[in-house]
Amino acid sequence: MDTKQLTRIAAWLKETDIVDFTYKKDGADIEIKTADAAAQASEFDCNLIPVTSPAVGVYRAAEKGESNNLKEGMQVEEGAALGIIETASKKVEVKSPAKGILRVISIEEAKPVEYGQPLFFIEA
Length: 124
Description:
Blueprint: H1 3-14, E1 20-25, E2 28-33, H2 35-41, E3 48-52, E4 57-60, E5 75-76, E6 81-86, E7 91-95, E8 100-105, E9 112-113, E10 118-123
Antiparallel strand pairs: 1-2, 3-10, 4-6, 4-9, 5-8, 6-7, 8-10
């Protein structure tokens, strides 16, 4: 690959949001990383609200004997119960901080969680 072709590729990369470009041909490898694209890629608008764990413990969707059928895409109300964190000494309820659509469930039943760990994401 000649320098003119590399210059054209570098100029093209600056016009895109591609951060890392690798070219491999006939045993030759070329990797280009653009700092400008990385800065642009980090600027985005997101309307997802994280629901984080209020304590360290084990996540449960509901109390034993009860059910809590959470599904991605379902409507949730502000303050709605989204589960329970069982700690060594107590149970802490996980509540929805806003009314919206439950877009992402990032926790599984009976899995350990850390304080502040995102459990769900709600689109307000």
